[in-house]
């Protein structure tokens, strides 16, 4: 159903979308299920209308490579328990390998029984809430369709049903699907996404056009939210779909995810609209937070304002902190507040959402999203309004994993050689506390301090143990810098089960003391460095007018020694694959010729080292320290390129940021990035 937001599109909210004529949402929801899902809805069917031509770009809400309803900001504000607010920037994937195809829920408030194909604020709002974020993983396709309107549903409630045609919307989606397959798919895998009426339409499309047919091979998954997808009790297939099972793992592809949300302390009542299926069947509950079963944390993206669920338009902003703080994004995240588990009992089969309050916290201990009319909660609808919001982050992660499994399977079937799959671990070997941010980030605040983490990265795969950067250990640097929690890099590597002599390669991002100062600690490693970096710091840097700040002469001598021993490899420029699946790039000029690394894979990562000091460089679009002031703009361009190479800003790993040990699973000094 319609999810209304109080955010940057306030002007839309103040228009016809939030008209006073909107009747109680609970009644609309009730009739939407009855009218769209029941056979007797055809008794008031309107005349058939000619098939829609989806070659017209104006009747697509979303298509790739253009500005439209799916390119609105998806930035979110992370609200910590202590009330701290952190902005999470959103960046769509560049050249994603798969597609997503979306059918939106009942949102049209047009006068007729079926909507027309004109894009209004209603469709724009719901696509922003439920679908635009999938751009992190896929190309987005969302057709307009002539859905059964809220007006038609209200007419049923009033006992004076107007003509409408529930087959009309389906025929549109079918035409859009066929157009997509013929003109846009080009053999790519696809994820189908729907909610409420959209899920019902997609269920029929899958059953009639995909299930058991050759095109099923393209299906990565079907995400059907806010619906009752039937399956025989205890089975995964045999209900709505005969050949498409329920998903039980994020590495499974060709399967279906369906669920309906209720508060755990407010389970479905006897008259529930969700969680029930015909006799002999049960409604599917595939928990996006724990597909394998049990409970899992929800990575929700919730509306920054209260959701309007009555006839009075948007309510006052929801207070996410106490005292309330202004929030400048459309969405908020509340890590640790919500979890979910599938429950099957006398009430039905449903996704039970638990709120975990923290007494005395500065963050809210509850969420909005219940269906309410005149202050009364309609328990039979549960959290239908926010089915998508509650599970959005989990679903995005699942699509990423499913894509990896799907592509691997496709390569195996075609006989293509599988690329090397690398693991990546960040190893913290020391901390320098209280460093001024302004000394590290161009135009950064000078009165703010940050703890600088000293990090090396271990990449394992293909029979190699590769270090990106080598750390430092020479005594003079401990006198110049306050260093705590220090463990010599070779010993830090040993702690995770790798002997120093088992390191096969050390790739140096740049010649500074804390990155090149440990090349003598790994006795059998081949060392890689940019050719221009080597030539400059073994020559011109020490001549009149040269720059050698931050360079240790002993490290340079070690570099020369490695060259004479045949253990040094020079990387010649940009976009060079030095090891299968390991590619080096230049362009940001932190030093004379610094480089950063891309680790290939279904989910590639960019290890930036000092070319990006902190995540805030990326979110605030500010340069790190560079070789010369004239290189600041090039550093910003390089950051943009890193995001493109990684496919997501979330997969660009900065050089000195402690947040990498919070964003990724961490044990002691080691964060497992991939």
Please characterize this protein's 3D structure.
This protein is an alpha/beta fold. It is 23% helix and 22% strand. The protein has 15 helices and 31 strands. The strands form seven sheets. The protein has an eight-stranded mixed sheet. Strands 1-5-4-6-7-9 form a six-stranded mixed sheet, sandwiched between helices. Helix 2 (25-37) crosses helix 4 and helix 5 crosses helix 6 (197-210). The longest helix has 28 residues, at 387-414. The model is unreliable at 1-48 and 308-315 (pLDDT under 50).
Give the SSE map:
Blueprint lengths: L9 H4 L11 H13 L22 E3 L13 E4 L5 E4 L9 E6 L17 H10 L7 E6 L6 H8 L8 H18 L6 E6 L1 H14 L8 E7 L4 E3 L22 E5 L1 E3 L17 E3 L11 E3 L4 E2 L27 E3 L4 E8 L2 E8 L16 E2 L2 E2 L9 H28 L8 E14 L12 E13 L2 E5 L6 H6 L8 H6 L10 E3 L5 H4 L9 E5 H7 L15 H12 L3 E4 L4 E4 L2 E4 L10 E4 L5 E5 L5 H6 L11 H15 L5 E3 L5 H4 L2 E2 L2 E3 L2
Parallel strand pairs: 2-14, 4-5, 4-6, 6-7, 7-9, 10-16, 21-22, 22-23, 23-24, 28-29
Antiparallel strand pairs: 1-5, 2-3, 8-11, 12-15, 13-14, 15-16, 17-18, 19-20, 19-31, 20-21, 25-26, 26-27, 27-28, 30-31
Q: What is the share of helical residues?
A: 10-25%
Number of helices: 15
Shape annotation = elongated
Assembly form of the protein? single chain
Report the average pLDDT across residues.
Answer: 88
Work out the radius of gyration: 28 Å
Low-confidence stretches: 1-48, 308-315
- Main sheet characteristics: 8 strands, mixed
**Main sheet: strand order:** 24-23-22-21-20-19-31-30
Strand content: 15-25%
Category by helix and strand content: alpha/beta
Give the end-to-end Cα distance, rounded to a whole number of Å. 37 Å
Strand element count:
31
């Amino acid at each position: 159903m319609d999810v209304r937001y109080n955010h940057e599109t306030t002007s839309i909210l103040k228009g016809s979308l939030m008209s006073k004529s909107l009747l109680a949402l609970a009644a609309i929801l009730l009739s939407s299920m009855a009218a769209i899902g029941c056979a007797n809805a055809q008794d008031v069917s309107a005349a058939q209308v000619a098939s829609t031509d989806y070659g017209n770009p104006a009747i697509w809400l979303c298509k790739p490579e253009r500005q439209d309803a799916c390119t609105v900001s998806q930035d979110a504000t992370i609200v910590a328990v202590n009330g701290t607010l952190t902005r999470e920037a959103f960046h769509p994937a560049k050249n994603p390998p798969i597609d997503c195809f979306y059918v939106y829920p009942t949102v049209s408030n047009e006068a007729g029984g079926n909507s027309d194909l004109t894009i209004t604020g209603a469709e724009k709002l719901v696509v922003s809430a439920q679908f635009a974020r999938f751009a992190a993983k896929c190309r987005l396709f969302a057709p307009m369709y002539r859905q059964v309107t809220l007006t038609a549903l209200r007419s049923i409630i009033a006992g004076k049903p107007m003509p409408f045609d529930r087959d009309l919307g389906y025929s549109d989606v079918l035409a859009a699907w066929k157009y997509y397959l013929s003109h846009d798919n080009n053999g790519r895998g696809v994820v189908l996404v729907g909610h409420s009426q959209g899920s019902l339409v997609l269920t029929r499309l899958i059953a009639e056009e995909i299930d058991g047919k050759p095109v099923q091979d393209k299906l990565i998954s079907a995400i059907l939210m806010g619906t009752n997808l039937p399956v025989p009790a205890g089975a995964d297939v045999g209900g709505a779909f005969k050949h498409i099972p329920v998903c039980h793992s994020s590495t499974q592809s060709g399967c279906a995810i369906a669920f309906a949300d209720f508060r755990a302390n407010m389970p479905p009542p006897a008259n529930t609209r969700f969680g029930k299926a015909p006799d002999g069947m049960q409604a599917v509950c595939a928990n996006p937070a724990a597909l394998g079963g049990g409970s899992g944390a929800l990575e929700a993206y919730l509306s920054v304002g209260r959701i309007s669920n009555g006839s009075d338009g948007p309510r006052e902003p929801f207070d996410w902190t106490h005292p309330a703080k202004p929030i400048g994004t459309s969405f908020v995240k509340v890590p640790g507040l919500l979890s979910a588990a599938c429950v099957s009992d006398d009430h039905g089969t449903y996704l039970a959402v638990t709120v975990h309050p923290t007494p005395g916290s500065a963050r809210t201990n509850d969420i909005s999203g219940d269906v309410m009319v005149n202050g009364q909660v309609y328990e039979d609808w549960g959290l239908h309004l926010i089915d998508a919001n509650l599970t959005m982050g989990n679903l995005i992660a699942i699509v990423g994993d499913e894509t990896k499994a799907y592509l691997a399977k496709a390569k195996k079937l075609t006989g293509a050689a599988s690329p090397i799959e690398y693991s990546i671990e960040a190893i913290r070997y020391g901390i320098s506390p209280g460093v001024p941010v302004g000394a590290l980030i161009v135009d950064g605040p000078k009165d703010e301090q940050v703890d600088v983490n000293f990090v090396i990265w271990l990449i394992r795969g293909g029979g190699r143990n590769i270090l990106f950067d080598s750390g430092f250990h020479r005594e003079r640097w401990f006198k110049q810098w306050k260093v705590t929690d220090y463990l010599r890099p070779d010993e830090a590597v040993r702690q995770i089960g790798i002997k120093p002599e088992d390191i096969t390669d050390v790739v140096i991002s740049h010649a500074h003391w804390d990155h090149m100062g440990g090349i003598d600690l790994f006795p059998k490693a081949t060392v890689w460095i940019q050719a221009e970096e080597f030539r400059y710091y073994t020559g011109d840097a020490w001549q009149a007018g040269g720059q050698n700040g931050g360079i240790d002469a002993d490290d340079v001598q070690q570099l020369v020694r490695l060259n004479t021993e045949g253990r040094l490899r020079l990387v010649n420029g940009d976009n060079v694959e030095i090891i299968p699946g390991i590619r080096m790039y230049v362009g940001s000029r932190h030093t004379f010729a610094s480089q950063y690394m891309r680790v290939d894979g279904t989910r590639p990562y960019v290890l930036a080292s000092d070319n990006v000091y902190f995540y805030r460089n990326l979110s605030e679009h500010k340069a790190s320290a560079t070789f010369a002031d004239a290189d600041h703009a090039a550093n910003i361009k390089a950051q943009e390129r890193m995001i493109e190479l990684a496919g997501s800003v979330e997969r660009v790993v900065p050089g000195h940021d402690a947040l990498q040990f919070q964003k990724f699973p961490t044990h002691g000094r080691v964060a497992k990035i991939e």
